[in-house]
Amino acid sequence: MLELENFRKARQVLSEVIRPTNLVHAYNVNPECDVYLKPECLQKTGSFKVRGAYYMISQLSEAERRKGVISCSAGNHAQGVVLGASAMGVKSLICLPEGAPFSKVEATRQMGAEICLVPGVYDDAYQRALQLRDELGYTFVHPFNDENVIAGQGTVGLEILDQLPDVEAVVVPVGGGGLISGIAYAVKSLRPDVKVYGVQAEGAASMVQSLHDHKPERLASVATVADGIAVKEPGSLTFDICSKYVDDVVTVNEDEICAAILHLIEREKLVAEGAGAVSVAAVMYDKVPVKGKKTICIVSGGNIDLTILNRVIYRGQVKTGRLCTLDIELDDQPGKLVEVSSIIANLGANVTGVQHDRSINRQQVNACILRVTIETRNHEQIERIKSTLSERGYKLI
């Protein structure tokens, strides 16, 4: 049984290990509510996961420590386990899905863990870790479905009540449910009036589905840029806690996640991974009822793979109206490209790419397709460009 005293004990144990993450007042996330960010992306190892992993390992017996620990993770929990194990002189073996970001895999390896890459996603790595646990006699450090892990993660909830005593809502990323379980239990135990909302990616909405069906459900597959919360099935313990203490769990799509990552980089000067940004995406796009409320978004992690960051930024720019690609049908005559470019420039946008295609068969033999990529300010400017081009006789495809 979870008890608040265990959360306070975890906070004491972690006080000399974790990095303090003070709230950041984020005025620009949503003008209709007062938003603060809890930047766990600045935590040691770049994620909140170190809290639960370290505390759980600290509670092991001497016999368990001598045998070692094993865990599975998309990356962030793995680094938390290795940091905790290394600090206490405990051997660690980590099972990771083969598709885990290279940066997370290498960071885990460099911290001193033995790595076992498993084909598939997190849940496949989980099954392999259980198999190796039984074979080798290690203690399994569960990423979320463990009372001590939940208590460690719940120290985030204790901190935010100290940092913003009049908080009215807390928005939390959800994968397996360890973080939101800890936060919801701690917050609701001390301040039952505070709303706690969870956020999942549309492509990995296992907790949403489970709460809807009133029992833990396993998804056939998961696919999302938010790899840190790409979990097929929530834990039995975390499901029960969320059922009792969480007000609602919502979803955000890939474009909304990318836009939130872009916003955090540009406006708040924070680098967040997809899993860490879903809470901000939910508030940006009004997925949770926090209008007029003092709201804390937990930015749970910042370990984004640089190989996908460029694509994420591109998707974020398109979603927010900062980038636009137009296909224009026009007569293949000298000066037409200049005319189109002039219209765009006069409306304050910047052409960054041009593709001129004569090969497409159209009714007009002398017609061509001009594909123009444009840097813009917002969606309103894009619409002005489109309407002006149409008024000048250009056909948008």
Automatic annotation (TrEMBL):
Q: Which gene encodes it?
A: ilvA
> GO molecular function, one example?
threonine deaminase activity
Gene Ontology BP terms: isoleucine biosynthetic process; L-serine catabolic process; L-threonine catabolic process
Catalytic activity annotated for this protein?
A: L-serine = pyruvate + NH4(+)
Pfam families listed in its UniProt record: PALP
SUPFAM superfamilies per record: ACT-like, Tryptophan synthase beta subunit-like PLP-dependent enzymes
- In this protein, which residues make up the domain named ACT? 325-397
Source organism per entry reads Prevotella sp. GTC17254
InterPro entries annotated for this entry? ACT-like_dom_sf, ACT_dom, ACT_ThrD-II-like, Ser/Thr_Dehydratase, Thr_deHydtase_catblc, TrpB-like_PALP, TrpB-like_PALP_sf
Residues crossing the lipid bilayer are none
Keyword RNA-binding (UniProt):
no
Q: What is this protein called?
A: Threonine ammonia-lyase
Which family does the UniProt entry place this protein in?
Belongs to the serine/threonine dehydratase family.
What the entry lists under CDD domains is as follows:
ACT_ThrD-II-like, Thr-dehyd
Keywords attached to this entry:
Lyase, Pyridoxal phosphate
